[in-house]
Amino acid sequence: MAKIQKIKKINSLRRIVAKLKSEGKKIVLCHGVFDLIHPGHIRHFQSAKKYGDILVVSITDDRFVKKGPGRPVFNQHLRAEVLSSIETIDYVTVVPSYSAIDSIKAIKPDFYVKGPDYKKRKVSSKIPAKLQSEEDAVREVGGKLVFTEDDIVFSSSKLINDYLNIYPVGTKKYLENLRKKYSPDFIIEKLATLSSIKILVIGDAIIDQYHYCFPTGKSSKEPIIVHQYIKDESFAGGILATANHLSSLSNNIRLVSVLGKKQPFTTFINKHLKKTVAAKFFFRNDTNTIVKRRYIDGFTKQKLFQISYLNDDFIDLTLEKAILNFLKKEIGNFDMVLVNDFGHGLMTDRIIRFISKKAKFLALNVQANSANYGFNVVTKYPRANFICIDDTEIRLATHDKYGELEVLIKKVFKKMKCEFIIVTKGPFGSLSYTGDGITITPALTDKVVDRVGAGDALFAMTSPLVAAKFDRELIPFIGNVAGAIQVQTVGNKKPIEFEDMARFINRLLK
């Protein structure tokens, strides 16, 4: 079969495979990124083909590959072309999805084949969820998950890390030094120990809406550009996103937030909040739940403008009292309190003072945005164990536009009686400080789809690490892994999962 004829779109392949199955052919499916084909892959495909008559290989679309800076090295077209030249493989398809589940549902294989390293993961407690969901999908279509038994296991990531210059010089040196101190398994196992930590999460609930449109031209009657609507999608943002991220580490998340009674979005929120998050919502009568609607150019994906539906006045005294009464009963039951303060009226002075006094461990992220710029600063809190803000926010907190960032970090650290501070710098990584010196951590991806929510993800995933007293080098590294994963997703469309973190760490430190 000519290699160009082997490469099929998923819908075409769905029909081809259905016909082959009706003729009695057994279908075998393998899925992966297959960024660098090596002897281990060849042996894997040969072993897989023994299970049936037709071998289909599906690969992950470039947009959904989350393996670190410079990955994939080869784009999806080249990866598909290389695979199609392998005689053992009958068909190749590119799947626009994070996982193999879409290809499993489309192909309905008799056998879904994974390598021997995945068999080890199946009996491990570290990374079971993704493989389990794939096995469930295979069973639903009447197939079976099987593993090859090759005695030699190669790693594309190790080969790429060792022999291809895919990282900037500074990042490469940083990762080389980190590899000498920590193995991926050590870090992943360390993260798994956080499952029992009890976290109280409080902050503003936000519905993020993305409306995609296309410019049709200037209005004939007004000096404006007219846009045609294409589609829209909504995500659970703000503290809702933070709670979802945290649930990948801990099984004990208690969320406290305020919704607007006029339009609460409770059905939407309940649908998009992780089942393991126990939510306590209070309702304010004078507004709707906060909505931030962004209008996006449907072709370039560039944000055009934003409309915010919010009332950022402070909540009234009755609601404040109800929240304080709840916190008085609950706060002592938690190992740590995490506050995402977006400055939209929930965090009153009395609530701030109470939490600061009573929290066993307090993690703060106090954000500057268009509605509160210059007014919502971290130093309005009397103290914190951990602070995570960006470089602009620390400058606003210290009223210093041009000062040396390291000096400003130390100033806030001392004022807030802090244990740990991380200051994020977008594509330039982050600076962290514990009182023993500044640690510089580079950004860990160069592929940015959307920056919305990256800081929240980094804050969410580092806070429990600080509370659990992880090594000070590991905390910003894991935080930047979370940020790197998040910027590869549109908004808060997909919360960070433990498997995402584990896989990304594995790829970086192989």
Task: Walk me through what this model shows.
Residues 198-495 form the Carbohydrate kinase PfkB domain. GO terms for molecular function: heptose 7-phosphate kinase activity; heptose-1-phosphate adenylyltransferase activity. Residues 30-160 form the Cytidyltransferase-like domain. Keywords: Carbohydrate metabolism, Multifunctional enzyme. InterPro entries: Cyt_trans-like, PfkB_dom, Ribokinase-like, Rossmann-like_a/b/a_fold. The chain is of the alpha/beta class. It folds into 2 domains: 3-163, 3-Layer(aba) Sandwich (Rossmann fold); 195-204 and 236-287 and 310-496, UDP-N-acetylmuramoyl-L-alanine:D-glutamate ligase (3-Layer(aba) Sandwich), CATH 3.40.1190.20. The chain is 37% helix and 24% strand. It contains 19 helices and 18 strands. The chain has helices at residues 3-6, 10-22, 39-49, 76-84, 101-107, 116-122, 129-140, 156-163, 169-181, 184-192, 239-246, 266-272, 317-330, 349-358, 391-398, 405-415, 454-467, 474-486, 498-509, and strands at 27-32, 54-60, 91-95, 111-114, 144-147, 198-203, 205-218, 225-238, 252-260, 277-284, 290-297, 303-309, 336-341, 362-366, 386-390, 420-424, 430-433, 438-441. The strands form 3 sheets. It has a 9-stranded mixed sheet, with helices on both faces. Strands 3-2-1-4-5 form a 5-stranded parallel sheet, with helices on both faces. The protein has a 4-stranded mixed sheet with strand order 8-7-11-12. Helix 15 (391-398) crosses helix 16 (405-415) and helix 17 runs antiparallel to helix 18. The radius of gyration is 25 Å and the shape is globular. The chain starts with a helix and ends with a helix.
